Amino acid sequence: SAKRLNSLDPNGTVFAEYTALANKHKAVNLGQGFPTLHVADFIRKNAAEAIAHESLGHQYTRSEGHVKLVNALAKYYSPKIGRELNPLNEIMTTVGASEAIYSTIQALVDPDDEVILMQPYYDSYPASISLAGGKPVIVSLKPKANGVSSSDWRLDIAELKKAITSKTKIIMINNPNNPIGKVWSRDELMQVADIAKEHDLLVIADEVYETLVYSDSESPMIKFASLPDMYERTITIGSMGKMFGVTGWKIGWVIAPPEITRASWLVHQFLPFSVVTPLQEAGANSLEMAMTNGYFEDTTKTYQKLRDKLMKTLNDVGFHPMKPDGGYFIIANIAPFKVQEDFSAYLTKTVGVTSIPMRAFYQKNSHGEVQHYVRFAFCKDEATLDEAGKRLTEYF
Ligand code: PMP
Ligand code: GLN
Question: Domain named Aminotransferase class I/classII large: which ranges (predicted)?
């Protein structure tokens, strides 16, 4: 295989690995972040209608994005970002946020360019940067001693400043963060924005969990592109999989000024060319409805209850979970339990509950520091969380 693959883990992504392990051991899978919740009737009905229609959605659609969907996205995001987005040249739809990240990085990163990643990060970031020949430069979010919540994880701005060199081109930020669930405060975002401005950097803001920010969050959701002077240098990434709990649809998007959207599209045209037509149609209709039917508010409440339920279970069994302000993951500090092997593998095999080891979100040289953390997904129906709770409580 090509030399560029040497930058990738030969075992593949941890999500596929632990889902396979969960299936093998018939474990309750709280590892990979896919919802097992009922998908709202209006969303499934829109999908069924788009497929059933004789002519709407069976052929390629516009390469940059199905017109109805980019229009709906412009309507949804313009007020949130605070400017009138042009759906035809500032929004591109992609095969999930994953392709949005990949195409954008391919489009912007030259060999030896440096991209700042905040650790823990989503695992596709360093892979996409390395495949483009770029260099991930790592800064770390760190928890306060005895921290109990995702907001106790902070970025040391001095560390970020120190990481910037003449080769730095992009800062990537994930808000709300996967795996911690941190929702960035305005002050924290402004510090990053000031650095981006001072050093003339682009910012990729992965905001796929933006609709899942809980009522007790320390900070509201603030879109990076909405900060003063930031629109021109921000690439916002979103995902319908997270927005509507349909990760299998694989529809995402890039929102950025026209030159950047165009650059991402030059890559995208030779990757998928266009994105699955009937689901873009259904996604557009669903977003139009969700803007007025209370879907987002209801869903956030549902997820918050599930979060609280899993928090209680993890607390009861002594796992020291940290309450996330957003997203659908909880990280837990399992330091009190000394097991020789990988705790996530151990838990899957002996207890029948699967999590993801925190090291998946860290560079190799930091794995030792985070071996006592695992990540649990709570985007699961009550019965699934109950079964996981039963197994954990019986064992610990
Ligand atoms: N970014 C983050 C932070 C994610 O958690 C995910 C999904 N796991 C993605 C991007 C990719 O999203 P999609 O499934 O739409 O490709
Ligand atoms: N984003 C999901 C997670 O963090 C999984 C994505 C994947 O399986 N690649 O669990």
Answer: 27-391
